[in-house]
Specification:
Bound molecules: flavin-adenine dinucleotide
CATH topology: FAD/NAD(P)-binding domain
Number of strands: 9
Radius of gyration: 15 Å
CATH architecture: 3-Layer(bba) Sandwich
Order of helices and strands: EHEEHEHEEEEEH
Largest sheet: 4 strands, parallel
Strand content: 25-35%
Strand order of the largest sheet: 5-2-1-9
Helix content: 10-25%
CATH class: Alpha Beta
Distance between the termini: 24 Å
Structural class: alpha/beta
Number of domains: 1
Length: 131
């Protein structure tokens, strides 16, 4: 086996619908995947109204990101706020909440909610096709 082989490093920014869908689609690829979110939980936003009307409790519509992705051996979850991305140098910058410093990557997938086009994670998941 080639000792110098390094698995591709992929960073997924945000663990919303898009980020989680992207992470799940990459569950079996030979890569080192890091999911970064500024919160430790995934929030199911479409049910926020039911929390507002006290039909559900906040715990019913959120789940710890680490437990959602616990079964994925190629994936780690990082609690940090992404502050910038340098696509030329392939660096993701994050404000330290658990583990800071620029993180060098081979690919990054923005899933931080900037593009909202549905609750099925289409925007970030679509980009998985280009990895
Ligand atoms: C009240 C409500 C009801 C809705 N109902 C529906 C519905 O019925 N049907 C439907 O299709 N859509 C619905 N939507 C829209 C749907 O929830 C969004 O389209 C969807 O959540 C977008 O997914 P996303 O992954 O792009 O972003 P999000 O789900 O918003 O996830 C973004 C993630 O990125 C993280 N993040 C953001 N910035 C950073 C950063 N700088 N660093 C680290 N992490 C970061 C956030 O913490 C979050 O976890 C609703 C939205 C709301 C608010």
């Amino acid at each position: 086996m080639n000792q110098s082989y390094q698995r591709p490093r992929i960073v997924i920014i945000g663990a919303g619908f898009g980020g989680l869908a992207a992470a799940r689609r990459l569950a079996h690829v030979d890569a080192q995947i890091t999911v970064i979110d500024r919160n430790n939980h995934h929030l199911f936003q479409p049910l926020l109204y039911q929390v507002a009307t006290a039909d559900l409790s906040p715990a019913d519509i959120s789940a710890p990101i680490r437990s959602v992705l616990r079964g994925q051996r190629n994936t780690q979850v990082l609690l940090a706020e992404v502050t910038g991305v340098d696509t030329t140098r392939k660096l993701v910058f994050a404000r330290d909440r658990a583990d800071g410093g620029p993180r060098s990557v081979d690919e990054f997938l923005p899933g931080h909610g900037r593009q909202c086009d549905g609750a099925d994670g289409r925007s970030a998941a679509r980009q998985v096709g280009s990895v």
